[in-house]
């Protein structure tokens, strides 16, 4: 069950990261040349926080 939850969180984080990157590019007025690196940084930060929160919630509930 934990694996399925991690998979679902990962999918959601992918789309959120893509949306954030697109919003930054709209605000900037042009696309980044190193778009993949910036996407990686965004998704890494979000994933680290989300999975830490999930672990904390899972440990505190059981």
- Helix count from the secondary structure assignment: 2
Query: Could you list the spans in which at least 5 consecutive residues all have pLDDT below 50?
Result: none
Count of the domains? 1
- Please tell me the overall pLDDT: 92
Helix/strand/pairing category: mainly alpha
Helix content: over 70%
Q: Report the major sheet.
A: none
Overall outline: elongated
Annotation, overall tally of beta strands? 0
Strand fraction: under 5%
Short recap of the structure:
The protein has 2 helices and no strands. The protein has 62 residues and is mainly alpha-helical. The chain has one domain.
Q: What are the SSEs and their pairings?
A:
Layout: H1 2-28, H2 35-61
Helix pairs in contact: 1-2
Report on this model:
The protein is 87% helix and 0% strand. With 62 residues, the protein is mostly helical. It has one domain (2-61). The longest helix is centred in the first third of the chain and has 27 residues, at 2-28. The radius of gyration is 14 Å and the shape is elongated. The relative contact order is 0.15.
Keywords, separated by commas or semicolons:
62 residues; mainly alpha; 87% helix; 2 helices; elongated
């Amino acid at each position: 069950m934990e694996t399925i939850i991690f998979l679902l969180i990962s999918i959601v984080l992918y789309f959120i990261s893509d949306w954030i990157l697109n919003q930054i590019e709209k605000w900037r007025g042009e696309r980044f040349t190193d778009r993949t690196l910036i996407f990686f940084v965004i998704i890494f930060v979000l994933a680290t926080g989300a999975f830490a929160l999930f672990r904390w919630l899972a440990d505190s509930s059981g």
